[in-house]
Specification:
By secondary structure, this protein is mostly helical. It is built from 1 helix and no strands.
């Protein structure tokens, strides 16, 4: 989603006359769960 947002923003900056537009990203969004929501282990940053 961020990739599309950045691409659209850059295009608008380069060509201000472009009309606003919409993008359908997916019809079936999926939740991706990480193993933990805690901070990384000591020494890994």
């Amino acid at each position: 989603m961020a990739e599309h947002a950045v691409r659209f923003a850059v295009q608008r900056l380069e060509e201000p006359e472009l009309e606003p537009r919409e993008a359908e990203l997916t019809r079936n969004p999926k939740l991706v769960a990480r193993g933990t929501s805690g901070p990384p282990p000591a020494g890994i940053r």
